[in-house]
């Protein structure tokens, strides 16, 4: 009936592309309880049917954007991983990540002191950019997730303004760049290793693990589930 | 195409940018904010094309000094050496660090230029109402959105080197003027990718179908 029927991700029984039926299911209030949930693709606006019993990844049948991923125990997992990340974050910021030995002098750098150097060298803009992308945004994300997830895990009602906090966590996500920073450390290591002795510090290793913990925490989040649980109208 | 594709817009629904709740367009006009997550409601990202054009232009201006001015100034035993992005890549190649040379080349030269070209291509394709391969163009968009952050590598390398190598007159590394322009390119193109609405690609295709 429609020209999109070639896609392999599309379950035949969920493809009720009848205008009247879809419009019926799309009434906002009923869409939360009704069996098939309608999702408008954020990339191409087409309406996709998502049935709750379908345990898989749903890609938009028209443009291929990821619309839904099944995430078991989402709240427990992301809470545990966020706590892990937070501990590693404290570690990473309290130990030097690189030490340089050159002509008898040893110079150690922790992340925050590096940013201070940059500030004192007259590059305030860059210092702020690094502070924001490697310290403040990741920290805000972790604390924000903790604030949202802890009450849900404990079975309490959502924290105050949890909806706003979650929206913020998602909006700042592209600006947390710790994994890019780790690559930066490695490149700097290679660059300096030609001229002097470089000793990677504890922080490099905790940073390396932190990045995985953070990525895992974020990808085990289930936004549709959280929006539903945090919904102030409930 | 016999059947018109069923988009949210066609059914008079607005999909919330924050939480994807579907809201009746009539209601959206009154409420302005999503009843569930509180985000501002828009059918499409506001002024998407002109915002993206402005940001792309700004990035195009900044990318010139970013590539021609020195990115890093190395002072070693009284001699001063300035490196641009490209000469930095060449330095790594000459010292045999091919892996690092590749990383820096891709992150600092290839990605920023590719990203700007793709955005310009997408903007023009919407402007001239192209119906050519909308799915592939959407994939291109997702690519620019995802890949932009990796351009920051060079900025971080400089941060670390400036902080680490400060032995006074013996050896010091300073950030050159290009660093600021380059950081601006990365930040501006990230905003540009964020302000482009890929649904415009499909709107044009549907209207002309």
Q: What would you say this structure looks like, in words?
A:
The complex is a heterodimer of chains A (234) and B (209). Chain A is built from 8 helices and 7 strands; from the N terminus they run H-E-E-E-E-H-E-E-H-H-H-H-E-H-H. Chain A is α+β, with helices and mostly antiparallel strands. Chain A has 2 domains: 12-69, no CATH class; 74-230, no CATH class. Chain A is elongated, with a radius of gyration of 23 Å. In chain B, the strands form 2 sheets. Chain B has a 3-stranded antiparallel β-sheet. A two-stranded antiparallel sheet of chain B has the order 1-2. Chain B has 2 domains: 1-43, no CATH class; 45-208, Butyryl-CoA Dehydrogenase, subunit A, domain 3 (Up-down Bundle). Chain B is mainly alpha-helical. Chain B contains 8 helices and 5 strands; from the N terminus they run ββααββααααβαα. Chain B is elongated.
Topology:
The complex is a heterodimer of chains A (234) and B (209).
Chain A: H1 19-25, E1 37-40, E2 47-50, E3 57-59, E4 66-69, H2 74-94, E5 98-102, E6 105-109, H3 111-120, H4 124-153, H5 162-172, H6 178-193, E7 197-200, H7 202-219, H8 223-230
Antiparallel strand pairs in A: 1-2, 3-4, 5-6, 5-7
Helix pairs in contact in A: 2-4, 2-7, 3-4, 4-5, 6-7
Chain B: E1 13-15, E2 22-24, H1 25-31, H2 48-68, E3 72-76, E4 79-83, H3 85-94, H4 98-127, H5 134-147, H6 153-164, E5 171-175, H7 177-195, H8 199-208
Antiparallel strand pairs in B: 1-2, 3-4, 3-5
Helix pairs in contact in B: 2-4, 2-7, 3-4, 4-5, 4-7
Give the ordered list of helices and strands of chain B.
EEHHEEHHHHEHH
Tally of domains of chain A? 2
Number of strands of chain A: 7
Which strand order does the major sheet of chain B show? 4-3-5
Rg of chain A = 23 Å
Mean pLDDT over all positions of chain B = 90
């Amino acid at each position: 009936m429609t020209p999109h029927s070639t896609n392999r991700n599309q379950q035949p029984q969920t493809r009720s592309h009848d205008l009247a039926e879809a419009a019926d299911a799309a009434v906002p209030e009923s869409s939360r309880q009704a069996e098939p949930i309608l999702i408008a693709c954020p990339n191409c606006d087409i309406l996709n049917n998502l049935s709750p019993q379908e345990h898989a990844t749903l890609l938009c049948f028209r443009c291929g954007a990821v619309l839904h991923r099944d995430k078991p125990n989402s709240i427990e997992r992301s809470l545990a991983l966020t706590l892990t990340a937070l501990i590693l974050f404290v570690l990473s910021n309290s130990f030097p990540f690189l030490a340089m030995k050159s002509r008898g002098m040893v110079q150690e750098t922790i992340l925050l002191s590096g940013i201070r150097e940059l500030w004192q060298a007259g590059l305030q803009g860059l210092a702020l950019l690094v502070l924001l992308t490697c310290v403040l945004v990741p920290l805000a994300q972790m604390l924000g997730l903790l604030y949202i997830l802890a009450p849900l895990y404990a079975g309490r009602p959502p924290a105050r303004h949890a909806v706003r906090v979650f929206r913020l966590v998602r909006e700042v996500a592209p600006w947390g760049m710790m994994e890019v920073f780790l690559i930066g450390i490695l490149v700097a290591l290679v660059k300096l290793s030609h001229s002097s002795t470089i000793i990677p510090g504890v922080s490099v290793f905790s940073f390396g693990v932190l990045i995985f913990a953070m990525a895992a925490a974020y990808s085990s989040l289930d936004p549709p589930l959280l929006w539903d649980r945090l919904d102030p109208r409930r | 195409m016999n059947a018109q594709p069923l988009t949210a817009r066609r059914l008079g629904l607005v999909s919330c940018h924050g939480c994807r709740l579907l809201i009746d367009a009539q209601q959206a006009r009154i409420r302005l904010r999503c009843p569930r997550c509180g985000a501002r409601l828009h059918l499409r990202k506001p002024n998407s094309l002109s915002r993206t054009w402005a940001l792309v232009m700004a990035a195009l201006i900044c990318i010139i000094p970013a590539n021609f001015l020195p990115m890093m100034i190395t002072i070693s035993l009284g001699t001063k050496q300035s490196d641009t992005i490209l000469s930095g890549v060449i330095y790594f190649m000459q010292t045999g660090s091919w892996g690092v040379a590749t990383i820096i080349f891709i992150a600092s030269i290839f990605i920023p230029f590719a990203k700007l070209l793709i955005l310009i291509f997408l903007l023009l394709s919407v402007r001239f109402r192209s119906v050519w391969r909308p799915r592939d163009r959407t994939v291109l968009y997702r690519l620019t959105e995802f890949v932009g952050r990796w351009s920051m590598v060079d900025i971080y390398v400089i941060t670390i080197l400036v902080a680490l190598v400060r032995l006074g007159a013996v050896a010091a590394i300073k950030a050159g003027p290009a660093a600021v322009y380059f950081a601006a390119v990365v930040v501006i193109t990230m905003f540009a990718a964020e302000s482009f609405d890929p649904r415009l690609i499909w709107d044009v295709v549907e209207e002309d179908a």
